[in-house]
Design goal:
This protein is α+β, with helices and mostly antiparallel strands and 258 residues long. It folds into two domains: 169 residues, 2-Layer Sandwich (Beta-Lactamase); 55 residues, Winged helix-like DNA-binding domain superfamily/Winged helix DNA-binding domain (Arc Repressor Mutant, subunit A), CATH 1.10.10.10. Helix content is 43%, strand content 13%. The protein has ten helices and five strands. Strands 2-1-5-4-3 form a five-stranded antiparallel beta sheet, sandwiched between helices. Strand 1 and strand 2 form a beta hairpin. Helix 6 runs parallel beside helix 10, helix 7 packs across helix 9 and helix 8 crosses helix 9. The longest helix is centred in the middle third of the chain and has 23 residues. The C terminus is likely disordered.
Length: 258
């Protein structure tokens, strides 16, 4: 399988990352289902789009549930019942162990023409879907459509950064605090690791962090490897930032909603 990993992403400009930091901050206030539309809408100032949806996907149960959508109701029903199995991001969640995937990550996955034509029937011309892997087979799913096709690589890069934050916000919004007692989030990072995460969250590259802290690039990478393990075995800096910045979740936060 051909796979375009995070190394193929375009790093945001300083101005764009400042906007992303503001989005990450606002996302941390999402705690209710009626706030879920704000996840996708936070992206529109950077890459305008027409339709959006978010939901959950359970790998073992092979079930997609939509929590919010602005797509046509009929199209949504058809996609949830049949079309989602053709989605490249869903296929990558099932075939790989990668934490964050998108429909643009594997060019050898071809969407059937009947599905493409169905989308066109309902006015969907461009689409990017993103999946984020949780625990126990529970994943979250995000779709954005009808953006400028020339912006798809920018949108893919932005969603690679934001999707882990979206995932945690989705978990908070769809998990009843009345049913699950809240436990404090404990992450035992050293002062140096906290310092490194501060600069990662500011959008600094590993090389820039090494210059700021007056340490070698290898030392920064070594610290990040330890940080990833302490934050639950995350795969990349963006997932690490999401976990590091996130408020406490309920003890059963990765439970699939009924």
């Amino acid at each position: 399988m051909i796979f375009r990993g995070p190394e193929s992403l375009q790093y945001p400009s300083k101005k764009e990352f400042q906007h992303l930091a503001e989005i990450m901050y606002r996302i941390r206030t999402v705690e209710r289902r009626d706030q879920l539309p704000s996840l996708a809408s936070s992206v529109s100032p950077l890459v305008p789009y027409q339709f959006a949806a978010c939901g959950s996907y359970h790998i073992q149960k092979h079930v997609l549930r939509v929590a919010h959508t602005s797509f046509n109701t009929e199209l949504n029903d058809l996609y949830v019942s049949q079309g989602f199995v053709t989605d490249p991001s869903i296929q990558l969640l099932e075939r790989t162990h990668i934490g964050t995937v998108s429909s643009e990550d594997s060019p050898d996955i071809v969407i059937p023409r009947e599905v493409t034509n169905l989308k066109l029937d309902f006015g969907v011309k461009t689409c990017l879907s993103v999946g984020v892997r949780g625990v126990l087979g529970f994943c979250t799913y995000y779709a954005l459509s009808n953006f400028d096709q020339r912006q798809i690589w920018k949108l893919r890069s932005l969603m690679q950064i934001l999707a882990p934050h979206f995932h945690l916000a989705y978990m908070r919004a769809t998990t009843s605090s009345a049913e699950h007692h809240v436990v404090p989030r404990r992450i035992d990072l050293t002062s140096r690791e906290e310092e490194i995460m501060h600069w990662v969250a500011e959008g600094k590259t590993n090389w820039e962090i090494s210059v700021i802290l007056h340490v070698s690039l290898n030392t920064v990478k070594f610290h990040l490897k330890n940080i990833y393990q302490k934050l639950g075995g995350v795969e990349n800096r963006w997932s690490a930032v999401a976990q590091w910045q996130s408020p406490p979740l309920s003890s059963s936060s990765d439970k699939l909603e009924s």
